[in-house]
Amino acid sequence: MPENQAAGWISLPPCKRKKLFLSLAAILAILCKGIRSQGALTYTITVEPSVTVQRGLAVHIPCQFTYNQADLWRSEKIFAYWIKHQSSFCFPSDDRACRPVATNKQYESVELSAKNRFHLLGDPKEGNCSLFITDARIEDEGEYFLRIEGRPNLKYSFVIKTLNVKVIEPIQTVTIIRVNNRGSGSPSSPLNPVITKEGNTVTLICTADGTPPPTLSWMKENQQIDSPTQQRLQLREIGPKDAGKYQCLANNLYGSLKTTVEVIVQYRPRMPVFNTTQTHRRGSILSQGCFKELPSGSELTAQEGDSLELFCQADSNPPATTSWEKRNGHLQKPLDNQLRLTNLTVEDEGVYVCTATNVLGMGQGFFRLSVTCE
Questions:
Q1: Number of structural domains, the chain?
Q2: Which residue ranges does the record assign to the Ig-like domain (predicted)?
C-alpha cells in the first residue's frame, strides 16, 4: 500500500490536484478582499460637509477621524494634511507639487496663500483633524479633503466625505455711475449730483460688491421704480418731473446697502404767472383785497385810486431773473420781480409784460389792466 494511502491520504490525479489548488487560491483571494474591506471600514471621518465664514473673519471647524491601527506602528506619528481639491486629488507623499493648506508635518511646504492662516489643531494620532482658518479670503472658497499618512502602511485620503468652505462678503459699497454718450462715466454720490439739461437722456449704472453677488433695485424718493435691467436705469427725454433723489438698493442673503444720487434737471423759464394784491380806495378809506393768482393772458379790472402789487413768478432752473414792461406806454419803476402801481388812473390801462430769463432761454407772460372811473 502507498505511504500516503496508509496515512489516510486520498490519491488524486494531477489534473484534479491543479483544479483544487486554483479553487483554494480563489477562496483566499475573496477572504483577503473581505479583510481589506473591513479595514477600510475603520477609516471614518466626522466633519461638517459645509461651513460658511465671512470674509476677513475666522472659523473653527471641528473634525474627528478613525483609522486602522494595524496600519501604524505604535511608536510612529500620524501626519495629517488638509488639501484643497483642484481638478483631481493629489497626495503630498507622491507628488511634490501637491501642497496642503495645513499639516502637522514639520518643514512640509504649504500653499503660499494659506500660510499662517490655515491651522491643523490637536493630535492626529488621537483622531483630531480640526481645522482653524483665519482672515478668510474669497479664494479660500472650495472643497477640501483630509489625507493621513504613517508608517508602515498608513496612507488614506478621505475623498468620499469632504469639507466645503463658503466665504461670504457682506455688501461693502454701492456705487452709481452716470454713463455719457461715449460710454465712459464717473461715480456719482450725494456730494456729486447728476446735472443735466431738459430733453437729454441720462443713464445711471449701479454696481455693488458682495458674495454672493447682490441683487439690485432702483427707487426714487424711496419709492420703487421699474427698470428693464437691475443694474441700469435710463431716463429718456428728461424733464423737471424726473428731477429728484434716486437710490440704488443692493441685497444679498447677508444684508443690504443703498446709495443715493440727486438728479438735477436744468430748463428754461416756463410762462410766468402773476400773484396780485389789490388795495381799494373809497374816499379816504383804504381796504385791501384778497391775494389771487392770475395766469398769463388774464384781464384785471381796477378802479381809479386803487393800488396794485404784482409778483411775476416763472418756474425755471436755474432761477430766472425777471423784467417788466408796458406795451406802448410808460412803466412805473418795478422792483425786481415786483411791480407796484399806486393811485391808478386811466393812463395806467394797457398790457403789462413780464419776461423771465436764465442761461437756457426765456419765457414771457402778460395781463391786460382796465381802469374804471368811480
A1: 3
A2: 187-264, 295-372
Percent of the chain with pLDDT over 70: 79
The answer to the question of residue 309 being in a domain is yes
CA distance 312 to 75: 101
Reading phi first (left if > 0) and then psi (alpha if -120 to 50, else beta), residue 365 is in: beta
Alpha-carbon distance 278 to 302, whole Å?
8
Residue 339: which residues within 8 A CB-CB, separation 6 or more? 308, 309, 310, 311, 312, 324, 331, 332, 352, 354
Instruction: Give the separation between CA 262 and CA 221, rounded to whole angstroms.
Output: 10
Nearest Cα residue to 272 out of 309, 231, 312: 312
What pTM was computed for the model?
Answer: 0.64
The DSSP-derived string for 57-86 is --EEE-EEEE--GGGB-TT---EEEEEE--
pLDDT (0 to 100) of residue 226: 81
**297 and 213 belong to one structural domain:** no
User: How many C-beta neighbours within 10 Å does residue 199 have?
Assistant: 11
Q: Which domain holds residue 88?
A: 44-168
